[in-house]
Amino acid sequence: MNKNAKKKVIYLALFMVMLVGVVVFLFPVSFSAYRANHVLADFWLTITNTGVAKGSILLTVFGGLILAISHITLKKGLFVFFVFTISTLLTIKLASDFNEVVLKRSIGHARPSIVYLENMGIVKADSVYSRQQLEERSNYVRSMASVKKEETAYFNQNVLEHWIHSTGHSFPSGHAQNAFLLGSILSFVLLGSRFQLTKSLYFLPLIWASLIAVSRVTLGVHRPVDVTIGALIGSIEAILIFQIPLLKSLFQPRDFGE
Q1: How many CA atoms lie within 13 A of 60 on its CB side?
Q2: pLDDT by residue (tens digit) across 139-163?
Q3: What's the number of CA atoms in the CB half-sphere (13 Å) around residue 108?
Q4: H-helix or E-strand spanning residue 111
């Protein structure tokens, strides 16, 4: 991939980060999709769920296949597929763990959804975060919500279930970080493809990443600053990855030759 193509993806990623920031800060999207009567509640929940492990794996496999079919020989294609898939998933895992274990815990911001439930008198944020294990936190939130069903009767119950499982800290958003990291990588892959159709679709992974980031705010599990900084971190991580000579060659199928 030439330098101009690389710049194209980098500029697009940074532009989408800014666009996400504009949308979540300037428009009334926070907590806009948690009520049962909101027509887009399940849509945003579906979008956000594509950013979990299964979605990341499927999209990474897709990227590996795009790289693989750019090679004439099956042996070389399979080699590139497995190296790309494994290295990308490991990169996302390391980035995610660093965010969850180091950044989020050191900053310690409570999720806005937990604060909202506290303001409703359902839970106490200190009681949630005094529990070390995520499962213990979820069980506590679930038990308290089940006692006060009347207070949550107007919730979309699928969103409420998502809140119950989303008991980690808030800043920065891991979903936004991982989505922009993977989205930037996939954009590089598509733009470096030998096929004109896939080249022309290079922007789609970053649109997906942007929707992931916005969904976190609409569902009330993140603040605007959480997803904006998370998206920026993910984009920067992707940019740094492509500065490593060994990894740069992996994402450029033409460098392998036929």
Answers
A1: 25
A2: 999 999 988 888 888 999 999 999 9
A3: 7
A4: none
**220 within 8 A of 123, measured Cβ to Cβ:** no
Return the SS3 of 131: coil
The sign of the torsion formed by the CA atoms of 232, 234, 237, 243 equals: negative
- Quick check: helix, strand or coil at residue 187? helix
DSSP 46-70: HHHHTTSHHHHHHHHHHHHHHHHTT
- Three-state DSSP at 70 gives coil
173 touches 212 (CB < 8 A) = no
Cα 235 to Cα 240: distance, rounded to the nearest angstrom: 9
Residue with tokens 């604060």: 115
What span, in angstroms and rounded, lies between the C-alpha atoms of 12 and 95? 21
In whole angstroms, what is the distance from residue 250 CA to residue 258 CA? 14
Q: What gap in Å lies between CA 227 and CA 216, rounded to an integer? A: 7
DSSP string, 235-255: HHHHHHHTTSHHHHHHT-GGG
Length of the chain equals 258
CA–CA gap between residue 78 and residue 127 (Å, rounded): 50
Block residue for tokens 């999709």: 33
- The whole-angstrom separation of Cα 184 and Cα 169 is 25
Quote the pTM value. Answer: 0.92
β partners of residue 120: none
Q: Report the amino acid identity of residue 148.
A: K
Q: Residue ranges of the chain with pLDDT lower than 50?
A: 1, 253-258
Rounded to whole angstroms, the maximal C-alpha distance in the chain is: 66
- Angle at the Cα of 7 from the Cα atoms of 70 and 81, rounded to 5 degrees: 25
Q: Are 170 and 223 contacting, i.e. CB atoms less than 8 angstroms apart?
A: yes
Residues 6+ apart with CB under 8 A from 1: 188, 191, 192, 251, 252, 254
